[in-house]
Amino acid sequence: MEEIRRIREELSKKLGEDLEVLLPARRYETAGEISRRCLRRREERLTLTDMLDHVFLHRALGIPIFLALMYAVFQFAYSVSEPFMVMLEAAFGWLGSLAGEAETPLASLWADGICGGLGFVLVFIFPIFFLFFALAILEDSGYLPRAAFVMDRLMYRLGLHGRSFIPLLLGFGCNLPAIMATRVIDDERDRLITILVNPLMSCSARLPVYVLLAGAFFGAYAGAAIFSMYVLGIALAILMALLFRKTIPQLRGKPAPFILELPPYLRPTLRSVLLKTWQRGVVFLKKAATILFAGALALWALSSFPWGAPLEATYAGMLGHALEPLLRPLGFDWMAAVALFFGFLAKEIVVETFGILYGVAGEEEIQAAVAAHMTPVTAFAFMAFTLIYLPCLATFGIIRAETGSWKWTLFAVAYELALAYAVAATIVAFGSIVWG
Amino acid sequence: MIRVALIGNPNVGKTVIFNHLTGARQYVGNWPGVTVEKKVGRCTHRGVEMEVVDLPGVYSLTARSPDELIARDYIVEEKPDVVVDIVDASNLERNLYLTLLLLELEANVVVALNMMDVAASEGYEVDAGMLSKLLGVPVVPCVATRGEGIEALKDAIVDAATRKERRRVAFGFGDEIEDAIKRVEAVLSRSGSEELSRYPLRWLAIKLLEGDERVEALVSKFV
Amino acid sequence: MQERREESKLELELKGFAVGSAVLGAAYAALGVLEVVSVAGGFSFEPVPADAAGGLCLLVVAATFLLGAKELLEGRTLGISFVVVGVALAAVFGLLYVLIAVAHALMFVLGEAEELSLLAELRPEIWLALAAAAMAPYLRRALKELRAI
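YS: structure for the whole thing
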């Protein structure tokens, strides 16, 4: 066996390449040679698929085009949905005012809990549906597998498995099906890494948080600020995957080479795009009817009782003040602490919490109220923190189910908390140097 | 009775061919130890009884994925009389990769060149005769969705199972690698192990150079 | 003889696309640079906004057109693919900013925005897209001749 290993190493050194890659490559060459000799093209003809692939898979231009298209997608989801959100918000405001002044618990429950909390989250149905609509167009046209292909070249060089990009991309919608989709990855190690970093891909539940804060602080740059969160998520996912691969003994090794099918491009049909949008968006509505509704009730109760006490003296206030010292270094106040605490149930609850807390406190415009409690730097840090800090409860469950191990599940939670804290602290430190 | 295994990339019409070959005479079980479906069917052609096993759809035969291991172990350990490799004519290059791996395993391969209609509609013409010559194995063009070529495929299976002489075509990896393969082969045959002689020598050598974990574990018991 | 003349006609057409693509690429590059530089310099003159990310997107479109011009001038027919994708990207960004302009107008009507400047809404992405769209019918005809569509 020693001798065989020696022969292998000698050969590998002589050829300057890994035999695990080189031998299959030679086989592909042979296959290509045979296929060329057996194939005749009846007519020399350019197909539209050939042409589009020539550009979308271009060595230098492939990734920039992908990023530009993603930027367009997020601009679309944010900027174009704005007036619709304003209209729905006004509708909920009107509904809330029907109960009159919020002086009794019941009136307060209606105005602050239901309309101010749940209603405030429901407003974000527009950016979420717009995002899914744009992604469905890219998917149905056949572009997404190309995006995976160009990213694969980059990721393989970084030591990541290319097939993990599609599950990562799916994470933009929801991490739950995305983690289930990692089953397409054959190699256990590649799969585990993809599961661990998947929550870093910014799912649509985090979009409301970005939209709220970016709208309040970044004005004309709101779209760019939101886009930056998605890019930050991708970059961190790649970095973390690389780090795990290099440092954790169970995950060490090289990614397996893979074959990706590139289907021909198709003109997307409106019917299929709308169907996909609806199927994915309806998950948000179901969530609103269940966990977000329950969350709104619980948060309203916590922030309204003991009845008549000032907000800071309610149960929510006590909880927030207990957590605040942990987050003080990042510039987050006790309300942000409460929001993050309950955000573990579902990340939309972060926004719901702001709606209810400020509503109970009696502040009218939530965006203005948020702006009074944060600076642009802490808001950006808060967005990043929300992006990274924890997988939501449902994602936590699916990580446990798919890895089959508590150890890896808790590891995912621990590293994300630490990473979120580190990134937010870096943003705050950097921000305070640049803007004093 | 001759034992036939069906193999091919995913989405090449393997199931359709399996159904054509076996008709209603199939039963479904699981591969031992894993929850991958195992389909077996029977048929009689020209008075010869055949048992057809449907192997999982795979792109290659590494030790990395359960599907690929099932397929590989079946061919290596059970040594079916004929391995029918279903090749998508409209995607020849990628499909031939698996064919080359099967030839390395020294399986008794019959190529079913399926989806000839798709290739034609994409403007390609595939020369089955040339392919057969280059690979050194029988090649049967078919369009499984229309049932074309199935009878010819059955003929080819029976012929291949009864044929004594086998043409051997080895595909080279280039001088340096071939040299290393020879040296590994020499080390292996020096061991004189009974157990190892059950496997194709050249295949063992190639897998060892590629660093295949399973073959390494197997060989290290004897060398 | 007949066939050769047709071929040279096609070649001439491809050269035409090379020129058109180069001009569009230069225009996109100039405005992209302007949008990025105005952020760094802290100035902007309407309707060219100071928008770094938007400017970078314009530069991607510019690179697409310029690569197309380069390949076509080298006599590579496949270079026309860049022109096709360039026009498509131009259309995507043009449409995006038209939609955003409509959204801004709606916000104004709803009383959520204090002012609405038509000049500021007519971003370069929109009029550049119109220029690129002018090439579309010719492109379509050329692709038919190449039998790609």
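YS: worth flagging: The longest helix of chain A spans residues 270-304.
IM: good catch. Also Residues 64-434 of chain A form one domain.
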